[in-house]
Specification:
This protein has 148 residues and is mainly alpha-helical. Helix content is 89%, strand content 0%. It starts with a helix and ends with a helix.
Length: 148
C-alpha cells in the first residue's frame, strides 16, 4: 500500500510538472503573439505617417509648380529638398510594389517643379496618372498591413 501512495505522489508530481510546462509554453506563445502584433501596429503607424508626410510634400511641390511665377528659386529649393527627404524616408520602408509608383510620382513632380508642365497643361492634370498609381498602391499597402 505504501508503494501506491508513493506512486500516486510521483504521478501527481509528473502531471503537475507537465501542466506547468505547458502553461508556460502557452503563456510564452501568447506573449510572443502580442509582441508581434504590437510591432506590426507600430510599423503600420510609422508606414502610414511616412505616406502621409510624402503626400503633404507632394502637395507643396504641386502648389509651387502650379504657380511658378509666385515663388523664387530659394523657395522652390526648400520645397524640393523637403520633398526628396520625405521620398527617401518612405523609400526606406516601402515595399517593392510601392517603390515604382513612388519613384514615378517623384520624378514627375521633380520635372514639373523645375520645368513646368508641357503644353500649358495644368500641373494637377499632368501628374494625375502618377499620383493615382501611387495612392492606389499606398492604400493597398495600408490595408494589407491592417489585415495581417
Amino acid at each position: 500500500m505504501a508503494w501506491l501512495a508513493v506512486l500516486g505522489t510521483l504521478l501527481g508530481t509528473i502531471i503537475g510538472a507537465i501542466a506547468t510546462l505547458l502553461a508556460q509554453q502557452i503563456s510564452a506563445r501568447a506573449a510572443d503573439k502580442r509582441e508581434r502584433l504590437q510591432q506590426r501596429a507600430a510599423f503600420r503607424a510609422e508606414y502610414k505617417n511616412q505616406i502621409e508626410a510624402f503626400i503633404e510634400a507632394t502637395q507643396e511641390v504641386e502648389r509651387v509648380a502650379g504657380d511658378p511665377d509666385q515663388f523664387e528659386y530659394s523657395e522652390k529649393t526648400k520645397v524640393h529638398t523637403r520633398f526628396w527627404i520625405q521620398h527617401k524616408r518612405l523609400a526606406l520602408i516601402c515595399s517593392d510594389e510601392l517603390a515604382r509608383p513612388l519613384d514615378e510620382l517623384a520624378d514627375t513632380l521633380n520635372r514639373v517643379l523645375w520645368g513646368g508642365a508641357p503644353d500649358g497643361i495644368p500641373v494637377w492634370k499632368y501628374i494625375a496618372s502618377a499620383s493615382w498609381k501611387f495612392r492606389k498602391v499606398a492604400r493597398d499597402e495600408i490595408r494589407w498591413t491592417e489585415q495581417t
